[in-house]
Design a protein that fits this description.
By secondary structure, this protein is of the alpha+beta class. It folds into three domains: 2-104, no CATH class; 106-186, no CATH class; 193-256, no CATH class. It has ten helices and eight strands. It has helices at 2-36, 41-44, 47-61, 63-69, 76-104, 126-130, 156-167, 186-192, 196-202, 207-217; strands spanning 106-112, 115-120, 146-150, 179-181, 194-195, 224-231, 234-241, 247-251. Strands 1, 2, 3, 4, 5, 6, 7 and 8 form an eight-stranded mixed sheet that branches. A hairpin with a 5-residue loop joins strand 7 (234-241) and strand 8 (247-251). Helix 1 packs antiparallel against helix 3 and helix 1 runs antiparallel to helix 4. The radius of gyration is 24 Å and the shape is elongated.
Length: 256
């Protein structure tokens, strides 16, 4: 009977700890998936994987340890100390995990030449942000990624320098001084984008996925166009509203 009461106590404490962890995880998920990584960007740039890694680690450091350290023979003071230490460790791990996710969040989706580039917080230098002409682009957004256009330099010397920089791995999308409001790029987006029919003809195996996405958007294929989306893990495809020039959906399709 004593053993049963002890086991019951362990389960009660662990269950309470589990519910608290779920609550905190839910708050973190809301921030991550609705603000930092909206829509399919979480899947595109790894936000989903990072969140689950942090959450499962938090479970291991919290509720599972509760099962191990609980002992009815301990005094109330000893239990308070034990669980306070677990809470501090768990909170520290969660804070560290969220900070890693924060620097991995997408801050700009930039149209450059003939594609979109997803730029994450860690890929921008403070010195480059400070050179932005528009004040809106001098900091990393915290309320979701901003859609911007990239205006390539007209000066030949600056253009040549940019080419060498791109070869070295730092293209214009990582230099906010070239950022401009996206509205100024919509005509170019429409010119450079391709038809859905052309995309389907190149990827017949993705026809069903494309048809489903178009249906979900409530569009017809004639009202949509597409452009590639480059991110640090590869390429996706952006469906573009043919009238506005704005991306309306990102699909895990490598257009190349």
């Amino acid at each position: 009977m004593v053993m049963n009461n002890s086991c019951r106590g362990r389960l009660v404490v662990a269950s309470i700890h589990f519910l608290l962890t779920l609550l905190v995880g839910g708050i973190a998920a809301t921030l991550i998936f609705l603000v930092w990584f909206p829509g399919s960007l979480a899947r595109m740039v790894g936000g989903t994987q990072l969140f689950w890694l942090v959450f499962y680690s938090d479970l291991a450091l919290g509720p599972l340890i509760s099962l191990v350290i609980f002992n009815k023979k301990k005094t109330r003071k000893e239990l308070v100390v034990d669980y306070s230490l677990v809470g501090v460790v768990q909170l520290g791990a969660l804070t560290y995990g969220i900070s890693i996710i924060a620097v991995s969040r997408p801050v700009f989706v930039a149209f450059i030449v003939d594609r979109f580039e997803v730029v994450t917080a860690v890929e921008l230098n403070d010195s480059d942000l400070a050179e932005a002409i528009d004040m809106r682009y001098r900091s990393r957004p915290w309320l979701g990624p901003k859609l911007v256009g990239v205006q390539m330099p007209a000066n030949l010397n600056e253009h040549s320098d940019l080419i060498f920089s791109a070869v070295a791995g730092k293209d214009a999308q990582f230099m906010p001084k070239y950022y401009r409001p996206y509205e100024a790029s919509t005509d170019e987006v429409r010119r450079k984008s391709g038809s859905i029919e052309a995309l389907v003809s190149r990827h017949q195996e993705k026809r069903q996925e494309l048809d489903l996405a178009i249906k979900e958007l409530g569009h017809t294929s004639g009202k949509l166009r597409w452009l590639p989306v480059h991110h640090r893990f590869g390429f996706w495809t952006a469906l573009i509203d043919a009238k506005t020039g704005y991306p309306v959906k990102y699909l895990p399709i490598d257009p190349y």
